[in-house]
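Reviewers asked in the last cycle whether our approach scales beyond single polypeptides. To address this, we selected a multi-component target totalling 1300 residues and predicted its structure end to end. The input consisted of the following lines:
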Amino acid sequence: MKNLSIGAAQHAQITDPFWSRYTSLVCETIIPYQWKALNDQIPDAEPSYAVRNFRIAAGLEEGEFGGMVFQDSDPAKWLEAVGYSLQSYPDPQLEQMADGLIDVIVSAQQEDGYLNTYFTIKEPGARWTNLHECHELYCAGHLIEAAVAYYAATGKRKLLDAMCKYADYIDTVFGAEPGKLQGYDGHQEIELALVKLYEVTGESRYLRLSQYFIDQRGQKPYFFVGEWKARGGISHWRGGPVPEPDMEYGQSHLPVREQTVAVGHAVRAVYMYTAMADLARLQNDEELLNACRRLWGNIVTKQMYITGGIGSTHHGEAFSFDYDLPNDTVYAETCASIGLVFFAQRMLRIEPRREYADVMERALYNLVLGSMSLDGMHYFYVNPLEVWPEACRYNPGKHHVKPVRQKWFGCSCCPPNAARLLASLGQYLYTVVDSTLYVHLFIGHETNVDIGGNRVRINQQSALPWHGQTSITLGMDSAQRFTLAMRLPSWVSGEARLTVNGQQVEAAAGEKGYVQLDREWADSDRIEWQLPMKAELIEGHPSVRAVAGKAAIQRGPLVYCFEEQENGRSLSALTIDSRSELTEKFDQHLLGGVCVIQAQGWKNRSDSWNDGQLYRPLKAETVSVTLTAIPYFLWGNRGEGEMSVWLRVR
Amino acid sequence: MKNLSIGAAQHAQITDPFWSRYTSLVCETIIPYQWKALNDQIPDAEPSYAVRNFRIAAGLEEGEFGGMVFQDSDPAKWLEAVGYSLQSYPDPQLEQMADGLIDVIVSAQQEDGYLNTYFTIKEPGARWTNLHECHELYCAGHLIEAAVAYYAATGKRKLLDAMCKYADYIDTVFGAEPGKLQGYDGHQEIELALVKLYEVTGESRYLRLSQYFIDQRGQKPYFFVGEWKARGGISHWRGGPVPEPDMEYGQSHLPVREQTVAVGHAVRAVYMYTAMADLARLQNDEELLNACRRLWGNIVTKQMYITGGIGSTHHGEAFSFDYDLPNDTVYAETCASIGLVFFAQRMLRIEPRREYADVMERALYNLVLGSMSLDGMHYFYVNPLEVWPEACRYNPGKHHVKPVRQKWFGCSCCPPNAARLLASLGQYLYTVVDSTLYVHLFIGHETNVDIGGNRVRINQQSALPWHGQTSITLGMDSAQRFTLAMRLPSWVSGEARLTVNGQQVEAAAGEKGYVQLDREWADSDRIEWQLPMKAELIEGHPSVRAVAGKAAIQRGPLVYCFEEQENGRSLSALTIDSRSELTEKFDQHLLGGVCVIQAQGWKNRSDSWNDGQLYRPLKAETVSVTLTAIPYFLWGNRGEGEMSVWLRVR
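The resulting structure, written as structure tokens, was:
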């Protein structure tokens, strides 16, 4: 395995007619709104306490700690999103606000480098006594990610230096050496953050500490069990004694190199796999890479919804088991798919294989976008594939599924995570391996990329997701030879067409799913990439019981769904005719402009049922109907109603 | 509304080739086994403590209370089953054991009549302070039912007298008068028990007390809220404070006469509806009867599984809402369907309408029988209609669904409830209204019935559920005129044929679903009832989303299901061909002898899927298969495997 450059495109300016809507929402709406939330300035919303906690810990204010034990991660995620946002949209006023917050945060840092408001204010003597439940290293990780992003955007080192001091201190607490804690965090995050800190500082101790946390995880005797015994079995959350911790929940049941199946809390899992992939790349660690490949393979071939959602059960917000993908009792947390995007991005840095980018694109266009309302102010944490609103209210097994997006201050984990991902979208478009530029996503932007030491300007334009045209115009001071590798998405329907400066070239993708153009490129060279896109019926593997006998519609990267608004109540009464042609129509006025898909099918009739009949000999009376589907990411923007991604097909 | 006689048949001796297997299991296996369980004599089983608690409360032994707060109900249910059993199978040794238990129970009664081991031993000062959670009146009700059954079987009054004393005491505690508690129990049961006590003693105060509990329920201010406040919000179960009680859970959200929809804990609901129907009958209370009709109608037309199961969610073991009948996350507790049988029986005493008997028969043949293993030693509490064993283990939302029956001492509510129902099966066969004998169920037995003051001997023989022949031979000392009304079941497929002494008579059922034979009957008259029975595909109402596009198989009273043993894994991959003929074959060697049904259909192929493919463009490749169904009540008797009542149909 070669040690690969992680590529550039850090400062891509998104100029895409589809995506700019979302990236500018982040800057113009979400970041200012969240600032108010963090500072308890939103009327009628429960206070966040997050900034106040730092002020109290810094001695700038009197009071009690407020919010969750992991409340520090909220300002951290906000700062990280601000960092990415400032790279694309400089904003002195925002930068000033962020500097002010950083001043407060750094003032709260203890003499020895420790920085956590919960333990500083509320349990000063109890640092590192409940790693399993109390998210200390998780919060540290988010602060480190914020520091790295803010430094990259502004060059300002204040938070970065503070975080190095904190990481140095953590390094004195954890490790294999006698006297140190042989532990790791309950919620993985520090591991990937330390890799970022290493990459920006070059300090190899941070990389080694990340590696320690990863490799210590799952070793016996179990750290969390010892810790649980040491605190008399008392739980932070329950206040009383609880049973021995479940090791699978936080993926600490086995040494990570021996893990083969994705289990437990889905967000924790993918954050950990992300760090594992980082370490595999940076340390040329083939064994760890193989573990990543196995876990990736298990997720995407056995435990992933068609929307890119992962985590089949709300109990523990967790994976359940292979092929168990219920559409209605699903969890599919937004943060989990964001973590899956991270994992895919890291795998692409190691080995550019189409499947990683396909999944990344699937999660971005469907689950991540679908988690937000069109106004950017309402969010899904749980992303169902089938909704019957009455069941969400009256069947407690579905209470966790909300039929409409919730105001974003209701909980604080997913919305800022979506914000930081969208604000950094430019980091997911490319990787450069040696002298090959791999183009993974087709999203309009401008950027500069270093290829083999030379700077190449890229201007991409794309009509996705509605049309399959993408063009790339290269800019460079002098001609140079390199390989441009264009991903051929798995959803392409028909022959892709590729031209360079108007001349058609062969568009055959290699085994890895990329069309390679190895040539001497000159300034203003223009590559046009035409990806045929047509609506298709999709089926799931027969072992996925929840979708057996059903079909979904996909067009390009977009998964579709059926809503009550177009198709009436009882969506389960509908069947798609597999022989019907799927017609596509762009409706300028619907939901901001959308390609609507129609199919022919049948609806079970209820008019011939006698009053009070619940069961009867089969008549199977149906009536022909036209079924109308809209993109899944837009569902739930027109009030409450039934929704289903999958319908019966025959 | 006429005040109806509740009919006789109390001592029917079941002689049915199908049912005797179960009734003798109760006597020969279940009752002796439960005796050991109650006395903590089963090795490797958690002790019951139930008899020991009574001994401690009686001062015969030293020790602490053991088991649940409602542990007293276990010996009570055992005694009730013993009472029924002794009526059919006299057994001096068993009677002696029961007498001994009664001695202990009565010794535990307090001076003032109070009798509850939990409060006597553990919280002597806290009687009646937590009706909502602590089942005091529930346990009293079961002891009363036991006393009535044991008295009816043996004529022995010891327990009956003790229970009258207890009821007299309860009557001094509860009531509208100042100084009394204006309350009622958290778990309804006392209400129907007091009606039985009234019927056996003629003491109208017991009837009035039952009426008080029923009518006080749901009045404002809510009794349970006041009680909850008075104990500082502390919960018996949690040990700490809990939120205000949910009034719907125990059907105390509204006065019962205003209730229109079955809500909350399903067992509590049907026990209450049973008492309401008793009171409506005995008090000629048309308003209460209308409430019963509405609640019955809501259950059987909107909230009942095809198996006769009720209660769609394990959260609160409760009804969820109209048409919400998920097959896999179902609760459908055995006790709830037993209560539904009680409710149906009571409604039949008021108005003999086929629908009540149809539902009673559906619940008995499918859910109640299906809750027991063939050996009578293993039980389902939850009775699913679709099982994927891995999901029961690895998806926590299905942990409550067990893929195989559990050893019966694991929990103590459903198995003894099934035992007492089976032991008293004779009470469900007939009702007599004026001079009409309504025959509801076709189960072989011998009994004597009083019709218009005359005694008629009945000898019924039946080939159900495998064949539709039933014969009734009458015996009487002298000829007499009365009406014999034979139920024409809703499942009959084709023309029923009725003969009297070999002569065919018209078999037209009236609006209420009974064929009436009004004539002068003589000794040895023989009625033959031929009910055509053929396997049919059944569909559910289109509003039942869980079965849309699917069909089940029913033959006579039996609902069928598909098991992995005959049909392979991934039952969801199967589709029934609606045009295929259903073939019936009696297999003598399978599961004790069973009519197996086969249909033609298709199975989704998985062999053309590439390794690692989870979704692909629709091919819908199927292969023709023969599908084999067995009766639902026999599922799960051959080890663990998938099971499904409903399959897709086209």
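Confidence is low (pLDDT under 50) at residues 1-9 of chain A. We regard this as preliminary and will revisit it once experimental data from Aim 1 are available.
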